[in-house]
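Support request, please re-run this one:
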Amino acid sequence: MTRTTLPEGAAATVEPVRERLLAAARAEARALLADAERDAAATLRDAEGRAGEILAEARARGEADAAAVLAAGRVRRRRAARARELRARRACWEELCRQVEHGVGQLACAELRERLAERARRVLGPDARIERTADGGVVGEAPGRRLDLSLTAIARRSAALNGVEVEELWAP
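Re-run finished. Output below.
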């Protein structure tokens, strides 16, 4: 196996690139969130306008009918609004994960792969079987244990570990 050595100082240049990629991913997630919030606000305004019309018609038919229509309308609107919000959040999350995975994929190099293999051996033991992954990472296996250090898995775990903080980017 031929090892490629990074040019001197290349490892130091990875961090600024990583930071720029993460900053770009965050900015794009914020932009997606802003678009989703504008769409949600417009939809809610439309729904509230329609709700006013329904309420006026219900009052004309009688108080008993109005109460039933109003209650059903509110539940329906809340469910629809919640479904739209959840879809928008999911879209933001998926886009963020895609951006993070793309950014992490840009960091792939022989030195990083070797460091990941060393980490797998420390965790699983020196006899662990280490396999390369297509994205530049490794997967280690030992009897009854498996450690996925593929760059995609690392990116997903990172996003999941920071999920609450990351979700604040698009939470209402």
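The CA atoms of residues 13 and 91 lie 31 Å apart. Strands lie at 129-132, 138-142, 145-149.
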